[in-house]
Structures are given as C-alpha cells and as structure tokens.
Specification:
Elements (H helix, E strand, L loop, with lengths): L2 H23 L1 H8 L3 H26 L8 H17 L4 H14 L3 H32 L6 H19 L10 H17 L2 H29 L5 H11 L14 H10 L6 H37 L1
Helix pairs in contact: 2-12, 3-4, 3-6, 3-9, 3-12, 4-5, 4-12, 5-6, 6-7, 6-8, 6-9, 6-10, 9-10, 9-12, 10-11, 11-12
Amino acid sequence: MKIKNIIGIFLTILVVGSAGVFLYFHQDILQNIKNVSPQVILLLTFLILSSLFCNGLVLQQLSRPFIAHTHIFDFILLSFSASFLNLITPFRGGAGFRAWYMKKRYNLKYADYAASLFGNYVIVFLMSSIIFFVLFFSFFRSSSIISLSFVILFFLVFLLGIYFILMPNSQFSQKNSISRGLGQIAHGWNLIRLNHKLIMVLCILTGINIGLGILILFVALSVIMPSVLLINAGYMYTTSTLAVFLNITPDSIGITETFYILSSRSIGISIENVLSASVIIRAVNILVLFIAGPLSKIILLKNISRKS
C-alpha cells in the first residue's frame, strides 16, 4: 500500500473518530437532522443532482480540445461515478478513474487529462475568488466583518488564476521524462486557455456550479437557522473551495467543515449549526451517490467492454 494511501486512511479514521466523539457529546446536532422534512431532502437531492450534471458538462467541455467527438452521457456518468469514488477513497480517487476511463474510451493521453484537470482547478479558483469578492463588497456595504486572511488569500488566488490564463507559452527541456511530461501538460493547457470561447463557457458553467453549492449549503443551514442569509452561505461555501488544496480525506470530510467553521466565526454562525448543516448535506449526498455512483460506474465499464 502506498504511503499517501496509508496517510489518507489514518487521517480519515482520525477525522471520522473525532466527529463521532463530538456528535456523541452534542447529540442536539443529530436531533436537528431528524427534523429535516421530506421536502428539504427532495430539494437537496435535486440540487446535488443538478450540480453533478453541471460538473459533467464541465468535464465534457474540458475534453473538447483533445477529443473530436464526445458523448455527453459519458461525462455525466463520469461525474457521478468519480464523485462516488471520491466519497469512499482519500486523495480524490475519482480523478484516477476518470483518467483511466478517458484513456480506454477516447484514447486521451494522461498528459492531456492532467492539463484538463489543471484547467478545471484554475477556473474553479478564479470563479470562486470573483464570487468571494462580490460577496466581500456586499458585506462591506452592510458593515459586516469577514476575515482579512481570506481576503488576502483569495486576492492571491485571483491573481494566480489570471496569470495561468494569460501566461506566455512555456518551454520545457526534453532532456528527461519529467520535463517532457510537464511540456505536454503545458501544451494541453495552452489548447484550453487560448480558446477564449471555451474559457468563457467553462467560467459560466463553473459559476453555475458554485451557485448550486451555495444554494445547497443555504438550504441545509435554513433547516437549523431559518433566519440565515443567502450571502452568509455564499461566503462560507466560497471559502470552502480552498479545501481542494488539502483534499486528503474521502470527500474532504473534516477539511471542508474546517473552512466552514473558520469563515462562519466572523458572521456569527455557531459551530453546532455549521456541523448540523454539513451533516445534513453529507447524509443526502451519500444517499444520492451510493445509488447513482455504482450504477454509473457499471454502465461506464460496460462501455469499455463493448469497445474492446
């Protein structure tokens, strides 16, 4: 077993165990979950399915510079199956399955897949920082206080995103396999970033997906705090996108909640309410993915077997 997998499993056990102990001593959080109505569960299910569908569209758009003909149904199923694998494995195991499937199904080079994955992160961070600053100025006008650390961090993220989109073409030495691999990834990213129409479409789809994430958090928080504002959920959700830098536990469990708590402290939302909302979201997410995820993977594997 690889060291990173051992670390991931250890951290997952640590986080889940700590969460179990915390819930044992704060059983009011579990009581809040029991009060969730069927209507709220259906609404969250619809929003989560919409987010997964939108993510499939993003995956398809990112593959267009490398694949002449794509099947949208493939990418929607990939979104479901990869999210399911991310849910049960550390270090985003779903990304590895997507790379393998794209290689088998469309003969996509791993370097080109890495370029599309890199591009996805760049667009997500760029759009998250833009939405964060829209929310920041809204908070500023309403005399609310948000963390200066997050303002500085998102400003740096925004500059980094702009740089990677506008960066000059990079040249890598061909002397060794590492530099050749980096050169191939850079070439793939150039194909994406120089297609201005594609970048615009990706920004729109990613913006919609972030909006769906904000709505999901807002609905869950509304169960616990009926007076919560949409802007508060937006602030908490955009800061949680930074969790991808520390994505070492299944579905970033514990990592996402840490960012929620760090951001919620400055807007007056208690840790108990944050964790209650997070548990509600994760419960519905598990329900959706444990049904749709394995079915999607089975269909995708059948597609591979038919091709061979």
